[in-house]
Amino acid sequence: MNTAPTPRRRHAAAAVAEWAAVSGAGARPVEEVGKHQLMRRTGLPARDLRALDSSYPSTSSQLLTARDRAVVVNLERARAVITAAEVLVPGPRDPAVAPLVRDLRARLTSSPPPQEISPSSPGGDQGAKDDGQALGIISDKVLPFEFRALEVCLQFACKSLEHETSTLEEEAYPALDELTSKVSALNLERVRQIKSRLVAISGRAQKVRDELEHLLDDDMDMAAMHLTEKLAYQAASRSSRFNSDKEPSEFFDERNEALRCRVDEEGVEEGERSSEGGNGDEASVGFTPKIDELENLLEAYFVQIEGTLNKLATLREYVNDTEDFINIMLDDKQNQLLQMGIALSTGTLVITGAVVVTGVFGMNIHIPLFRTANMALFWQVTGGMVGASAAIFLVALLCYRRSGILQ
């Protein structure tokens, strides 16, 4: 029987996945794109696309990866490939991913193109001011497409973590208070599950925070995310290739040398380098992309994720305090049980002594005490034995209290 073609057909079907494409012009219908077609479309290696596949555990330590033609976003549920013209989101029919696609369509298709409010265009200042007031944009310049898409992904990831943190707080504080008032197996199990969720959310939020901090500390990674300026530089370099000794593809292979040209913010040293390159101001823009806008964007969400981590840290401290209080209560109960055990052991010892005396009197021996007809003597001996046992027991308890064994 021919069974070999079946695995190949399954492998070919598995290589095709659904992706939602959103651009500034609008959102296209969900389309099935193969891995190799997507690699040609975005210029990404296979390992980056494999990191976005939810069916495989992600082994990549980077959540935001900048490539030559795209930025790979792998923040929590916000998984996307951002290019200078469109955003590709895998698995748009997933209920957890659908809100991200809706946010991208609402934010990217409703914003005006950057050139319409550019200060260099006629009436640009006034247009930027009016549009900025309408859209809540602080600066006079609209962010490039890739930054607006990145902002949506960051906002989606931070909101997701913040929502999970708020939900956890609503469940955790009443459960901890109930455990404080009544220690039971059910309450302990609820707190154990809450603590497990707290550790998981804290780890995910810390991972996002570390990634943003890494980007803020690395100017080269932030410069590599300027896809629009990168394309503009490459187009300008191709148009003036006869004046340049370097190919456009070599520019971002030498980002470290290019970023050292940003010493002077007013562009003095950029002008010197561009004059040596032979293409004036336009080439200098490609060599030294300004990272202020992206840095402010990342800083804003860095502060937001810090707030989420602070809430989680406060909840963790409350959980630890509750655990310490429960441990103190359990230690107190254990001490009480130990004291009760000492008292019972002492009482058993005293009663055992009385039983021994009774056993001696119950032996088949002949003594004058057994031949007397006075019943009062029997009760006197019995009362004496009980009184002596009680006195010995009380004396033992008093000694225990004075020595600090019992409280």
Automatic annotation (TrEMBL):
GO molecular function term, any single one: magnesium ion transmembrane transporter activity
Residue ranges, compositional bias (Basic and acidic residues): 263-275
InterPro entries reported in the protein's UniProt record: MgTranspt_CorA/ZnTranspt_ZntB (IPR002523), MRS2-like (IPR039204)
Membrane spanning stretches: 342-365, 377-400
Membrane association type: Multi-pass membrane protein
Subcellular location: Membrane
A cellular component term, taken from the record's GO annotations: membrane
Residue span of region Disordered: 107-131, 263-285
Keywords per UniProt: Ion transport, Magnesium, Membrane, Transmembrane, Transmembrane helix, Transport
Pfam families: CorA (PF01544), MRS2-like (PF22099)
Record's function text: Magnesium transporter that may mediate the influx of magnesium.
Family note: Belongs to the CorA metal ion transporter (MIT) (TC 1.A.35.5) family.
Identification of the protein by name: Magnesium transporter
Lineage of origin: Eukaryota, Viridiplantae, Streptophyta, Embryophyta, Tracheophyta
